[in-house]
Amino acid sequence: MSRQSKQSKRSEYVHSRPSPSRPRQALSHAGLRTAWRLTRFIVSKRKGVFFSALACMIVSAGVVALNSFYTKYLIDSVITPMLAVAHPSFTPLVRAATVMGGVCVVGVLANFYWSRRMAVMGQDVQKELRDRMFAHLQTLPIRYFDTHAFGDVMSYYTNDIDTLRQMITQSIPQVLISVLTMLCVFVAMCVISLPMTALVLGIFLFNTQVVRVVGGRAGRFFGDQQRELAALNGFVEEAIHGQKVVKVFTHEREQVRDFEQLNEELRAAADKANAFANILMPIIGNVGHLQYVLVATLGAALMLAGHGGVTIGVIGAFLQFGRVFTNNLGQIAQQINFIVMALAGAGRIFDHLDEESEADSGTYRLVNTGEHRWEWVDDETAPTAVLRGGIRLDEVVFGYTANKEVLHGITMYAEPGQKVALIGATGAGKTTITNLINRFYDIDCGAISYDGIDIARIHKPELRRSLGIVLQDTGLFTGSVRDNIRYGRLDATDEEVEAAARLANAHEFIMTLSHGYDTELSGNSEDLSQGQRQLLSIARAALSDPPVMVLDEATSSIDTRTEALVQAGMDALMRGRTVFVIAHRLSTIVNADVIMVMDHGRIIERGNHDQLMAQQGRYWQLYTGVFELE
User: Which domains does the chain have, with CATH numbers?
Assistant: First the structure.
């Protein structure tokens, strides 16, 4: 894809991203499927940790229920008899307090264990997910990165992963302990008094319906909030990356306006989500107060009527039971918001992991037999053939999107050792051809062969290892100059790294840096000039020692003086190799064996410099300045 088309995609980012008003899926469908998949992912490798933590949660919940249940015993069997005598013995009270103290200690230890284990498990899941996501990211085709904003992809590793960690370490344990506590309390209530249990259960079911309705609405808006947050992050990443361009064209106000638009949409989505989420606790709290009054009133009426064995102890216990029910339901309602938000993030993460990896059914591998000699080896039939570097395209048709062809029946060939130049206006299809040779994309029709072998039969890593590429946009990484050059071949010695730098005429400027080859670069090495970064990129390609080179406007960002230095190194680098050169400066391709003039996805002229000049066609017009590339 051309550089201009990528920039146009960025400029339309605000308007082309998915609309938050698209149909939403309720938590009961997509969310539950994601929850089930996430549960299997968490538990599959951590059964021991999970079930031991669950056992401690059950113990902790049982302690809470036992505390409330013990209230009845304490009032009816200890305190009430003590009030009936003039000089009561405090021994039963001390014994009861000691027993409950021991039970509470067990509860504290159980709480500590499960909270600790869940925190560790959350970090472990977070690490495994990040590892899987990044490993999967390396398998995705170039098409994925052309169609997804960088900031949106980064959001998977930051916002979505973090909300997932919070859910595993806080929300899920809180919901589990609350549900287990309510179950234990329910059993205790049924044992004590069924009529009063029915009252508490009825109020609980009403509260549950409120949580379902209000929480469901909040969940849908939390999903929108995650999408809007990812869109905002994507815009900010692109704005920072292109800050120089923004300032050159004085687009600061437009950038602020677009940011404010995205930020407002995020605020609106968050406002709707939190508006529903924040009314849950007040509703549940007030219903809990009503429950407190109703339980006390019903209990007093039953006790005065002598019905069901209701005593003061039973009323006291049920007041505590009701409070436990209300508080735990409130905790669940509060955590549901975080769970829904985390499930929305988990859904995005799983969508990312479900992206189809780059297909590779090749059987041919490349073997370096030494002394610049490479051989093709077929895994199935085991024949070997010396790599010569001949590449041929036969009637190739291709389009980045369906029903929109970029190349129309391209036929061309590069004999071993030939230098083939591609020229033409932006969008003519020059870079697309090199993308197809690398199999960054697969052709729609036709065939591409490498030494007579269909490239679809060659393992993609082996194919790309035989193709050295120098792009207009350099890609340097954080690390030393030496490490950035060695990226072309990780097992290269320091001497080989230096030899490659000398070949690219980069050695001289490297030695002027503060620590020479050990100078640390950061980011994309903005402290180096564009020409210096390009020299390092060329040195890296030279170190990889590929049989075929692709130079995609490799010298377009280099000044004339630097270009003269680079050209000498490039001539040495290209010697004995098949080379594809894409260039706007025609002076750099005059000595090419074959020059292909392209226009709108077609080859309109081909030949060497002298032949094309004699034709006085498009190339002659370009070279003499009658016609200029646009």
Answer: 32-43+120-353 (1.20.1560.10), 416-431+464-624 (3.40.50.300)
